[in-house]
Amino acid sequence: MSFPKLDAARFRWHPSPTDSRAVQRLANGTEAWVGIRDENAKGQYDCYLNTTIRLEAAPKLSLSDLREALHLALVQVRFEHPDFACTAIWGQDDNPSLPHIQYKSPASNEEALEWAQECVSTRAARYGGLDLHLELCKQRRTMRIAQSARSISIILIADAVDDQAKLNAGAKVEMLMLFNHIFWDAMGSRDFVGQLQTHLATILDTAGSYQLPDFKWGDEISNLTVPLLDACKVNVEALGADFETSRTEFVDSLMRSGSSWGLPVTNNVGDPRSEWYTFSKNDSEKMVQAVKERLGPNYTISHLGHAATVLALLEKNPVPDDAPDSTALITALPVNGRRYLHDELAVHRFGACQAGAVVEFQHLKTWAPKANAQGTKTALENLCKHVKKSYDYWLKNEYQLALGIAKDNFLSAFLASTPMPFTGSSVPIFVTDGLVDRFVMKNVLNSKGEIIFSVDSCHFGVDTYGSDILIRMDSWDGSTVLSICYNDGCLEPTIAREFLNILADFMLSFVDEAQ
């Protein structure tokens, strides 16, 4: 198995060979494998975030007013964090499936506003953002010529006569944000929403009189994020035998995951779907408390969520008695990699920054619980301990982000030439996104301390046009939220919802009745 050397110079920003106003760099790590040309054009792994906001103390606004305020806010954020205004360019690398990420400065505020106007649209309608997202996915699947999405598109939706109608205080507006995963990850997209909120509050506070600063376009190029390999705390060009051994072990596990136990899936044409399960604040608190009391202060509800995913799989698709004892569940999981960056280079990094960990459950049959309440709790305890031990094994490595980048570059080259075969089985991949409140404000205030608008909900999802099954967990406003992202041509929606409900029930079962 041959791995290309991690050469930081190969992935640095440099002048575009075709445009004097543009700089570019070669896609690296996650950017590379989600940027495989044909898959990205289909929309594979594009992300979305649907945020429901409630207008409060702001003067009466229309969808059009909000759209224009967003134009200004986008320009502000672009100057400070220009990476999200990049585009993907294919055809400049030896591998035609691998993109360069290119940034081009606008010539003026006016040109920057034109770009922002192309990013934002409105819908005066009674349907919500999640309904619209599903409809857009269906439309995209039927496009005659597949085309990669722009870095970001924002659609404002409200139940109004048209986009000029003034909305009353208390009115709800849904903000559907569509992200091309080349330029974002889950953490980055939420961080971006928080930055956008801050500027939007300032703009709305001026009641229509806000003027953009006289930005010196071209200077913002210095605000482009430092490429990942240069931003790592570890010197990636001095990595030695330990790194190479861990890299080989990780990729070996990744390859073996193709034979892992999973959920049965079909290979029909369908659309990306997501289902959500929101625990009450009370139940969320009880689960966190139960984890700490039963397992210790270093355990989190994320460990419980991963453990419950295993039991949900075993209940929905039990391992037969006559299955080989070697039957295993092997999961290679993305992990936020910002901990491995220099602290000052990790702040407001919107782009993909994913390390990884592998959690294997060998002799899978032995992890099944005994058929009683205490047996389930014991099984969850044992699974939580194994999950944490596995994560700790990988995440202790100071080079784990570099390892993830090397793995993803290998994976992108492999998948570009050899698409993954359909196996009839899919491993539910558990991902935790942490506290959304770290980035997205519940209440957005004006200069008088009044609430301009509040955020009722945030729903994040990932599109898949294949047989992937992604289980995600985050927390918003004190409530833990689970989701399952899948394709309804590969997994029936009823089965997806059943799986999610079983998973949630297992998590709740960890709480003692007396709590």
Model description:
It is a single chain. By secondary structure, this protein is of the alpha+beta class. It is built from 14 helices and 18 strands. Helix 3 crosses helix 4 (109-119), helix 3 packs across helix 6 (186-205) and helix 8 crosses helix 13 (400-417). The termini are far apart.
Strand content: 15-25%
Put simply, the count of helices is 14
Assign an overall shape. globular
Overall strand count: 18
Layout of helices and strands:
Elements (H helix, E strand, L loop, with lengths): L13 E2 L6 E5 L3 H5 L2 H6 L4 E9 L7 H18 L6 E4 L8 E6 L4 H11 E5 L4 H13 L10 E7 L13 E8 L6 H20 L22 H4 L9 H16 L6 E2 L7 E7 L2 H15 L5 H16 L12 E8 L6 H4 L7 E8 L11 H23 L4 H18 L7 E2 L1 E8 L7 E3 L5 E12 L6 E8 L2 E9 L5 H17 L6
Parallel strand pairs: 6-7, 14-17
Antiparallel strand pairs: 1-2, 2-5, 3-8, 3-16, 4-5, 7-8, 9-13, 10-18, 11-12, 15-16, 17-18
Organism: Aspergillus pseudoviridinutans
Pfam family, one: Tri3
Protein name: Trichothecene 15-O-acetyltransferase
Note the main attributes of this structure.
single chain; alpha+beta; six-stranded mixed sheet; 14 helices
